[in-house]
Each structure stands twice: as C-alpha cells, then as structure tokens.
Amino acid sequence: MRLRTLLALVFAACALIVTFAGTVLVSRFVAVRVQIRAEARMADLADHLRQTIDANIAERLGDMAVLSSVAQTTAATADARRAWVDAMRQSYPAYAWIGFTDRRGFVIASTGGLLEGESVTARPWFRAGLYHPVVVDVHEAALLAQKLPALPYGEPKRFVDVAAPMRDASGGTVGVVGGHLSVRWMREISRAAIASALARDPSVSAMILASDGTVVLGPGDQDGERLQADLPALAALAAGAERASARGPWPDGHEYFTGASRAQGTAEQPTLPWTIVVRQPVEIAQTISGPILNQLILGGAVFALLFALLGWWAAEHLAGPLRKLATAASGIGHAPDGARLPAPRGYVEIAELTGALTGLLARLGERDRALAGANADLERRVLERTAELTEACGRAEAAQAHAEAGERAKSEFLATMSHEVRTPLNAIVGFGDLLADDTGLSPAQRRCVDQMRVGCEVLTSVVNDILDFARIEADSITLEAAPFRPRSFVEDTLALVRGSAERKGLDLRIEEGPEDHRVVGDVTRLRQVLLNLVNNAVKFTAQGSVTVALTQVAEHDGIALRVTVRDTGIGIPVEAQARLFTRFVQADSSTTRRFGGTGLGLAIAKGLIEAMGGAMGLESQDGAGSTFWFRLKLPSAPEVEPVTGPAQAVVPSGSDAFTPARLLLVEDTAINREIAQMVLEAVGYRVDVACNGQEAVTLVQTRTYDLVQMDVEMPVMDGRTAMRCIRGLDGAARDVPIVAMTAHVLPEQVAELRAAGANGHISKPFDRAQLRAVIERSLAVARGQASAAA
User: Fold this and answer.
1) Based on the domain organization, do 709 and 661 belong to the same domain?
2) What is the enzyme's class at the highest EC level (predicted)?
3) Do both 199 and 233 map to the same domain?
4) Residue 58 belongs to a domain
5) Which pTM does this prediction carry?
6) What's the pLDDT band for 462 if we cut at 50, 70, 90?
7) What are 161's strand-pairing partners?
C-alpha cells in the first residue's frame, strides 16, 4: 500500500473514530436528557389534570351549596325547586340528574320529575349528604338505569355523585340536594386539561384510576381493568408520594415514560380518591434525538473526508523524496557491481536513509561473492554425497536381495526337506501298517513293527513341528474360523491322552464350570496347543495327577477363555522358566536325556496362541509341579446349531451298487507306488497305475476312472501340469475327482494344488484310515453331484 493512501486512510479513520465516540457520548447524553424531560413532563401533565379535576369537583360541590341555600331563601314549592334544578342542568349539561329530597329520603323535586316521590335512602350520596358535602366515586346507575335514555354504542351509565345537606334557619338538616355527573364529564375535563400536550404529541394518553387500581377512565377499552401496583410511578405513590414519574414496561409489552399524581382532598374540600396517570411511549419520545444524531453522523462524514484529503496531501509531500530514492535504488538493482545511489537531497532523514542503503549495498556485494563461492563448494559436496548415497542404496538393495534370496532358500529348503523326508517315511509307515495286519508275526516281530511305527510317528511330529515353527516365524500361519464348544474340544483332547496317563497310573482330571458357550476359532490349532501341554504334563509327571481347568466368561465383545494345565511332576526351576518358550530349549540338558523331545512344542504353542491374540504363561517351583495356562478371547457364535449328521457316502443304486470303484494311481517312486497300490487294493478298490503325469493324462482319456490319486513331483510331467491337462479335456474325463498325494504340506503349496484342479489332498506319510476317508469323501461328493445333475 502506498504511503499517501495509508496516511489518508489513517486520517479518515481517526476522524471517524472521533465522530463515532462523540456520537455515542452525545446520544447517551441526549437519551438521558430526553428521559428526564419526558418523565418530568408526564408528571406535570398528571398533576395538572389532577388539579383540574379537583377544581371542577369543588365547583360542582359549590353548585350543590348554592341550590341548598337558595332552597331556604325563597318559596319552597316543588315547582320552584324543579325550575332551579332544570336551570342548573341547562347551565352545566354534565349533570345527568339533580334532585331535592326531604329528611326521610323521598325525592320532592328533580330534573324532568325523575324519581319524584321515590325513596333514595339506600343511596350513599343521600346518607352522607345529610351531614356534610360529599363526593361519591364512580358507580353504575341504579334507580336511573331504566329512566334515562340509552347512551351511544351501548356505553354503560356511570355517575359521580355530589351532594350537600339542606339546613333551616336554626341549622337543622331538612333534606339533601344531590347531583349525578356523567363519566363523560371526566373525559371532557381530561381532554381539555391536556389539550395542549395532545396537540404537540397525540401519543400522550391519560388514565384515571380508582383507589384499588381500577381504570375509571382510560384510552381504548381499558375502562374497568385493574392495573398492577408495581407499574412505573405507581409504586412510588403506594409508598406515600403525592406525585411520581418513571420509565418502564406496561402489560401491553411497550415501554412508557409515566407520570402519576394522587388527589389530595380535605374535610372542608372533599374530592375523589383518584390517581391520575399520564404516559407516552418511549420510542416516540426519543424520536427527538434522531435529528441530532443524524446531524452528528453527517458532520462526522464531512470531517472524515476533510481529514482524508489532508492525509493525502501530507503523504504526497513526505513521500516525494522517498519515491525518488526508491526509483534510484530500483535502477541500481539492475546495474553492474559497484553502482552507487545518487547524492542525497531533501530532509536529514532522507540523507541518513541514503547512507544506510549505500552501506547495505556494499555488504550485499560482499555476501554475493561469498555466496557464489559457497554455492560452488555446495555443488561439489552434493555430488560427493549423491555418489555416497547411490553406493549405499546399491549396497542396501543388494542386502535386501540377499535376504530375500535367503528367505526363499529357507522356504525351498523346508519344502524340499519335508518332501524328501516324508517320501521315504510314507513307504516305512505303509509297509509297517501292512506288517501289523499280518497275524503270523511272532511277539518279537510285532514289537519290532510297533516300535518302527512309533519312530515314524515321532519323526513325522518333528517334521511337522519344524514346519509350524517356520510358518510362525514368517508370520504366515493360517488360522481357520469355525464354530465349536470349548468344553467339547477340551474333553476330546483329553480322550487322546487318557490312555497314556492310565498306563503311568496318573489321575487325569478336568474342572469345568457350568458355562458352555459357542465360539468361533481354529479348534484344530487349539487342540494342538492343549495336546502339547497335556502330553508334557503326563511325560514329566511320575505320580499324582494332571488337572485341566476350563473357565468361560461372557463379555460384551466375545467369550474370554482360560485353560490351565496343572501337574504334580518334577517342576521347573525359576531361572529356567524365562527361556522355556524359546525354540530348541528345555529346562536343562538332563531333561532331554531323560524324556527326549526337540524343545519346539512350547515355542510353537505360544506362537499359535499369540497369533490368535491371546497369551500363554506358567507358574512352577522346582520339585513342586507346574501350571501352564493360556487365555484368549474368541467371538461368540449363535447358540442355534444346524442339525447335522455324519457324512453319508452316496452308494449307487441298481446293479452297480456293489461295483468297486476304479482308481488310477499316479506315482513315480516304485516303492511308494507299490505300497499305495497294496493299501488301496486291500480296501477293495480296482487300481491302475501310471508312472508320470503324461501316462495319467493318456489313461484318463482312454479309460473311465472314478478317482485319480496323483503324486506331485514326477519326471516327464509333474502332477500339477497333469491336473491342468485333465481339467482341460472334453467330456466326462475333465470332471474326474483328483486327490493329490504329496509331501508338500505348506498352506501355499496346498492352495497351489487346489488351483491346479485337485479336489482334495493327503500328505505323506499317510495313514491308511486317513487315505480311505479322503478317497471315500471325494467319491461321495462326485456321486452326489452326478445324482443332482441327473
């Protein structure tokens, strides 16, 4: 922003601020003065109206006194008196009725002869008028209600009564003279009393209130209403003041300046106990301040304009030398090094500024030269650093590639090791099972066969443990999610170990609560963990008991399970407990020598529980038994379980009901091919054999098979390629069930077999019952699909 513009705005803003402040102060002053004047004016009007009404009432009492005295000085005939009151009414039409009564209260003469001969002894004006002059407050017409003509617009007949006693020459009361003044008389008096104020401001209104606050005479339809005693100005009168003024709200929601005056009568000069109220709306009274404020705002605007012009002129006068200096400095910015500003002219301050700028230019030149040198050095260092980073990135990429290659090599090694170990194990287990079926074995031979089978089972368990631990370390463990009941899973697991415990003379117990919720989780992995803990407890307990405790607690986000395995065995030293869940570690070397084992079981169990989001721990003392526990939270499953029965194999009907299934066995290893063929034929299947995948594809196209049992790793054509070829055939051959028989058991390997076309798989070494179950299940599914298609 230019200096002259800034100064013009500053000067104008100052002028506006001063004007605004003055306007606020003056407006407040005017508002206060308007309120004081308006309240005083309303009080003066109320007092004036009260004095006017008091004076008029005094005049009417004088009329009664005149009639009373005249009645005693002239002939007292009824006609004469009637003529007097008619004359009085003609001279003052506000009288609705004037009459004379005798001492007994009978009307003896009146205007128009109304009520003559009737008794008025019950009327207040007669009873009080027997003793002294009296004024009676506003009341509805009683005896005259039906005798006087109706008023316009149905207005009720209301009167103010004045009366005085008639006395004889001795001073005794001989009767009463009284008059009824119409309420319209008061309205005319009020209008006349404040006529000048109404002429200036029609918003001014007056009210006459009775002693109880009832509106005797008021604007609009307020007659007869009762006002609250705490209205503006009325509260001060209630406290004893004769007149008051105030500002405040009224029941109609508007705010008024209000003045009030209370009538003050005496015994010699009675009057009505009325309160006179005059009010004016505040918003109308304050309109007087509007022109003043408008003049102030207009004057402030003119004042601000003049100050803005003054600021513009002053800025132009001050900024001229600065602008010349800025133009010269701008030219120097494009000049070669060594240029100088022109000699300073004008004010001292301008000269000082010019000198300061000259020194600054010199220092900037020095800095530019230093910066140029620094930039050159920086470019050199950046190039060196870039080369170092490039080399480091290359080393990091090489290290990452080496690590990835190592990981792949480890996975390939595990897969190869599993395949190479399981393949010969398959033959050992298979022939061992066949030998076990031979009833001609001697006891020594049978013991050797049993020991051989136990060794195979141990070796298979070790291989499985190694693979499980490798999956846990690689964070590639796959967990299933199926509904089950924790109590059933615990009881089924203990059933597998009960025989071992009974052979050692141990008491295998279970402690369960009444709860048995239905949860969702991997029951196979949980059984593996519990089986490991219970097997360890049985293994390391020579006598006593092994107790498994199960607790189930329902929470808002699932079921909290805690399983505890307590034994009375050898216990674990405190210093050995910290490393017990480490791989290939047992409490001490003697434990391995005495009880055997790889030291992987607890590490795998802990890894599985943590993979499920739980925790595992132990409590033990050397020689006092051990307590292993794990806890985890599982989602709850619906309690309504589908009614299911055991899987039923689909048996063909008709003549083919007892025809044995024809199977194609594809296996490249002769010993595995021989054992598998012997096992399958022993079950009752008709078996054809093929030595590689290419032979299997050819046989499937030439013969009809109920199922193909396919090895995976084979020469010429492997099992994966053969399965893809079979699935790509035309006709019924493409749908033949295929069961992969392989030593590859990693989840990703099984998924690869499924993708190639396998309906199921069985891992080597296989159990005969397991092999038969897989084949029967696959045959049952295929037959069920065929029946559904038919």
Assistant:
1) yes
2) transferase
3) yes
4) yes
5) 0.38
6) low
7) 136, 180
Dump pLDDT digits (tens) for 630-665. 999 999 888 755 444 443 433 433 334 446 899 999
pLDDT tens for each residue of 38-93? 778 888 888 888 888 888 888 888 888 888 888 776 566 888 888 888 888 888 88
Whether residues 522 and 666 share a domain: the answer is no
Is residue 442 situated within a structural domain? no
**How would you write 30-46 as a 3-class SS string?**
HHHHHHHHHHHHHHHHH
Q: By the 8 A CB rule, do 697 and 726 touch?
A: yes
Count of domains observed in the chain: 3
CB neighbourhood size of 395 (10 A) = 10
CATH number of the domain to which 686 belongs = 3.40.50.2300
Q: What range defines the domain where residue 564 resides?
A: 480-634
Please name which of 458, 490, 478, 622 lies closest in space to residue 562, comparing C-alpha atoms: 490
Tell me the C-alpha to C-alpha distance, in Å, between residue 551 and each of 467, 518, 525, 548, 618: 31, 13, 19, 10, 17
Please spell the DSSP secondary structure of 454-511, one letter per residue. Answer: HHHHHHHHHHHHHHHHHHHHTT------EEE-HHHHHHHHHHHHHHHHHHTT-EEEEE
Residue 288 has a CB neighbour count (10 Å cut-off) of: 13
Rounded to whole angstroms, the Cα distance separating 400 from 409 reads: 14
How many CA atoms lie within 13 Å of 603's alpha carbon, on the beta-carbon side? Answer: 20
Better-scored residue on pLDDT, 440 or 637: 637
Give the integer Cα–Cα distance in Å for 116 and 99: 8
Task: Decide if pLDDT at 730 tops 80.
Answer: yes
Quick check: is 674 in a domain? yes
CATH code for position 277: 3.30.450.20
User: Going by C-beta distance under 8 Å and a sequence separation of 6 or more, which residues neighbour residue 203?
Assistant: 280, 281, 284
Distance CA 68, CA 98 (A): 12
Please give the structure tokens belonging to residue 148: 């006087």
As a whole number of angstroms, the distance between CA 148 and CA 782 comes to: 120
Nearest to 267 by CA among 95, 69, 128, 68: 128
| Pairwise CA distance, residues 488 & 533, whole Å | 17
Q: Under DSSP, is residue 90 helix (H, G, I), strand (E, B) or coil?
A: helix
Name 110's bridge partners.
99
Residue 437: φ, ψ to 5°: -80, -15
pLDDT tens string 239-248: 667 788 888 7
**86 and 198 part of one domain:** yes
Instruction: List the structure tokens of 198.
Output: 């109404």
Dihedral pair phi/psi, residue 513, rounded to 5°: -85, 180
Are 143 and 268 in a shared domain? yes
d(CA 726, CA 759): 13
pLDDT of residue 645: 41
Range with lowest mean pLDDT among 5-14, 336-345, 489-498, 758-767: 336-345
CATH assignment of the domain containing 501: 3.30.565.10
Of the candidates 282, 315, 338, which is a domain's last residue? 282
**Do residue 505 and residue 619 come from a single domain?**
yes
Do 658 and 628 have their domain in common? no
Do residues 630 and 615 lie in contact, with contact meaning Cβ atoms separated by under 8 Å? yes
The last residue of a domain, from among 282, 314, 335: 282
Residue 392 counted as domain residue: no
Quick one: what percent of the chain has pLDDT higher than 90? Answer: 18
